[in-house]
Every structure is written in structure tokens, then in C-alpha cells.
Amino acid sequence: MDRTTGGWINGLLGVLIFSGSLPATRAAVMDFDPVFLTAARAALAGLLALGLLAAFGGKRPERGDLLPLAIVALGVVLGFPLLTALALAHITSAHSIVFVGLLPLATAGFGVLRGGERPRPGFWLFSCLGSALVAGFALARGPGGAAAGDLLMLAAILVCGLGYAEGGRLSRRLGGWQVISWALVLSLPVAAGLALLTLPPGFAGIGGPAWIGLAYVSLFSMLIGFIFWYRGLAQGGIAAVGQLQLLQPFFGLTLAALLLHEQVSPAMLAVTAAVVLCVAGARRFAS
User: Fold this and answer.
1) Which of 43, 92, 208, 258 would bridge with 192, disulfide CB 3.0–4.6 Å?
2) Name one Pfam family in it (predicted).
3) What is the pLDDT of residues 30-40, one digit of tens each?
4) Residue 6 CB neighbour total at 10 angstroms
């Protein structure tokens, strides 16, 4: 298996894991305060990352890596989780698909600015078309939004795209699991302190779905998914592999159909097929 193919496989595994993030966050914020949820998931993942680094070592970051790691931490460890948690208090997880459709474009744009990548014009054509298909499909399912939630999701997409691009660039030298682990450890003092400050007065009223949501976003969304994702971006290219995010909403809907027995419509299948073609086209013109 060549490096590029490995990058796409790792990226796809990361996207599959991330597909459950927004529904899990939505379940968690039904009972947890959004700020506590953000801090708790980062703190729990940070403790796990600290254990990974202690057990397996890994390449230590240099002084020049501290600013990029801080950008990763602010973008994907604290910024995106907090902004999406706040947004999902105003909008539905289905409505958030509109903005997830813009994430590949944001990642590709920051990949050009920060990663030095130069995709061909055909890449941008397929990327924009894929984003439009995802956003159009989400809007067709119903608006379900509010102005505050929309603005928060837009900010979340921008900081996440920057965090993805910066982490993918840094992973070329440090490695995928090391980048997210060091970013989590860097965030740990702030996250742990904030979690203690916003700790709920009691846990008796916290339902099972909220606990499951917290566990999922802490272990999978915050750590395991990024191990595959950053490795994929480093191997296959930030802009190119980033287009796999176009499939994330449809993976999420498929999981909902399998686990919650929601109906999968013919329109969903048709749009998914078209998005797959857009991802394939973007890959062809990625370099």
C-alpha cells in the first residue's frame, strides 16, 4: 500500500469516528452545560493522552512546535467542541449538517495557507460542488435553525478547519497520535480547571444518553478519531483527504438508520452517490 492510499484509508476511518460526534454532543448537552461538556471531554482525553505519551514515548515537540500545537488545541480541542456545543443548544444536529458541508472547503483553504499545498482548479470545482450538495441536502430536510446557532456553527467550522490543517501539517514530522496527544496535554490544565469550575452541583438528574455522549466525545471524537485523521492528512495531503469530510453527514444518517431505525430515503442515496463522485474528482485534481 502506497502512502497516499494509506492516507485516504486513515482519513476515512477518522471520518467514520467523527460521524457520531454531533449526535453524541447533542445528547450530552441535553443534561450537561456546554462549557462543562467541552472542558470535561478535553480533560478526560488529555489524561488518556498523557498516559499514551508516558507508555509509548513518542517524538517530543520542539520549541517551534509550541505555537502550531497551541493552534491545534484552540481549534479542535477547545474551540470547535465549545462552539458546536453552544450551537446545538439552539439548533438541531440535522441542521448542523449544513455547516459540516463547508468544513472540507475550510480545511482545504487553510491547507493552502498553512500547509503550502496547491491543488489544481479542478479540485476546487469538485470541492465546491460537493459542499453545495451536502448543504442543499441538509436545507431540504428543513431549516431547524436559529441565527445564534448558525453564527456559532460558522465560527466552529473556521476554527476547526484551521486546527485540521495545522495538525495535518505538523503530523508530517511528529506523527498523528503525537500531535493530538501533545495538543490535549497542552490543554489539560485549562480544561481540568474549567471542568472543576463548571462542575454540576449534582449528577442525579443526568440521564444515560448524556453519559454515553460524554464518553463518546471524550474517547472517540477527541482522541481516537484524530489519531487516524491527522495521520491521513499527513500521508494523503490536507486538501485532498479533507474532502472525505463531505461523507460525514451521510455516515451519521446511516448510523441513525442502523441504530435508531430512521428511514433512509432514495434522495439520500442519490446525493451520497453524487458526493462520492465529487470526492473522487477532488482526489484526482488534488495535486
Assistant:
1) 43
2) EamA
3) 899 989 999 99
4) 14
What value does the CA radius of gyration of the chain take, rounded to a whole number of Å?
18
What pLDDT, on a 0 to 100 scale, did the predictor assign at position 42? 94
Overall average pLDDT of the 219-234 stretch: 92
Range of the domain at 261: 3-284
Residue predicted with more confidence, 239 or 205: 205
206: left (phi over 0), alpha (psi -120 to 50) or beta: beta
pLDDT band with cut points at 50, 70 and 90 for residue 212: very high
Average pLDDT over residues 127-146: 70
- How many other C-beta atoms can be found within 10 angstroms of the C-beta atom of residue 66? 12
Query: Do 244 and 277 contact (CB within 8 A), yes or no?
Result: no
Mean pLDDT of 143-152: 71
Q: Which of 174 and 46 is assigned the larger pLDDT?
A: 46
Give me 26's grid cell. Answer: 447533542
Residue-by-residue DSSP string for the chain = --HHHHHHHHHHHHHHHHTTHHHHHHHHTTTS-HHHHHHHHHHHHHHHHHHHHHHH--PPPPGGGHHHHHHHIIIIIIIHHHHHHHHTTTS-TTTTHHHHTTHHHHHHHHHHHHH-----HHHHHHHHHHHHHHHHHHHHT-----HHHHHHHHHHHHHHHHHHHHHHHHHHHH-HHHHHHHHHHHHHHHHHHHHHHT--S-STT--HHHHHHHHHIIIIIIIIHHHHHHHHHHHH-HHHHHGGGGGHHHHHHHHHHHHH-----HHHHHHHHHHHHHHHHHHHT--
- Burial grade of 131 (CB within 10 A; 0-12, 13-18, 19 or more): buried
Summary mean pLDDT of the chain: 83
